[in-house]
Amino acid sequence: MITTTSTSTSTSYVKDLSEIPNLKKPQETFVDDPDSLQDVNLEELIFDLKNEIKDINNLHIYHSIFILSKCIQFIIKLQEFPDLFLKFRNQQLNKLGIKQQDNLHATNSSDSIASDVSFRSTSPPPSLPITSASFKIPSNNLKPNKLRNTDFKIDLSTVLSKSESDLDTLNSPKAISELISPSEEFESLYDDNIDDIIYDDPNYDEIEWLETPHYIPIEKLIETTDLSKSQSQTLKLSDINLDKLKDEILNHQPQNKHLLKIFNLLKTPNVTIDQFLIRIKTYSPSISTSSYLHSAFLLYKLIIYLNNIELTLNNSFRFTVASIRCSTKVIEDVYQKQSIFSNVVGVNLKDLFKIEMGFLYLINFNLIISELLLNHFLTNEFLDLCSFMKENLPDEYQEISITRK
């Protein structure tokens, strides 16, 4: 006889999605690349950067252009409110460990040094002393100490007794060749093979070179090697880059205001920043993603950290041109002619050169940025700028975040 038992099951529902534990980080799967700036959503990009789904190595070029565009527009709008701009700048400096008093003290000291002409030197820096080695000269009669201590006396009567014919023999080709050519005793000094030189080192011990080098067992290498330290080493390298940035902020010298004149336009163009960047991308396709991100960080550092310029809609176009052009020349392998790029951005060659040089002086010629620092900019500074704008200027944030054709 077969008996059946019925079991009752109860179904439970989760009321809040936050109750589900997050076992692993979200991952991007089968997502189409954007075909235009309109396909890039700011909130989605912020989420991807915050959760490390995207970084400098997997961003699309439209993402980098979008980040550069929003950085420029957010900063322009933020500088229209000086109190908010100062508040945000102090927040960023505090994250680097720079207090407002330290920044003011460094700025005042750099002003005094830059204004005092007496501190500037036009002479080249002193060269380091040349390290010389003493050589063993084969002949015992020619010792440097003996030559140095010998008293050379010239007998004038002997010189005057020489006839003109005897003096003319010095002008003969044979005599000149004997004077020019070195003697055999100093042949080792003129030998191209530096391995033949014998250094006069009393502490030199030839037995050390004959010993067998120390061998490290593989078992000891396995015990002392820890691959898990790679993350800590990455953090250490990141701290080093941030320390360099901190030193640059504290020690930078403000530049003269006349450098800003070349960036001002007589009339503001009837195009948006987005349209201008798309034009550059269309007619200069060799510019990579890294160049646009590099350009965004340079402008951010120049305005927020160094506080050297006031970015407006009028001068933002030429600052964008200068930052992209300098970034391209520094990190790109593909070379693009000045004449072609000047036609793309609508600037003549003479003004393009002045724009680049003015930007270099404003940035103190510090163009090299590491990959770790760029990733830190994406996951920290850019996200801080977006969140600050969203919190303090919500209407402007919504207006700028939407990319229009």
UniProtKB/TrEMBL annotation:
- Where is the secretion signal located? none
**Name under which the protein is recorded:** Cyclin
Name the InterPro entries on file: Cyclin_PHO80-like
| Protein's organism | Candida maltosa (strain Xu316)
GO cellular component, alphabetical, reads:
cyclin-dependent protein kinase holoenzyme complex; nucleus
What the entry lists under Gene3D superfamilies is as follows: Cyclin-like
> A Pfam family name for this chain?
Cyclin
Any one Gene Ontology molecular-function term assigned to this protein's record: cyclin-dependent protein serine/threonine kinase regulator activity
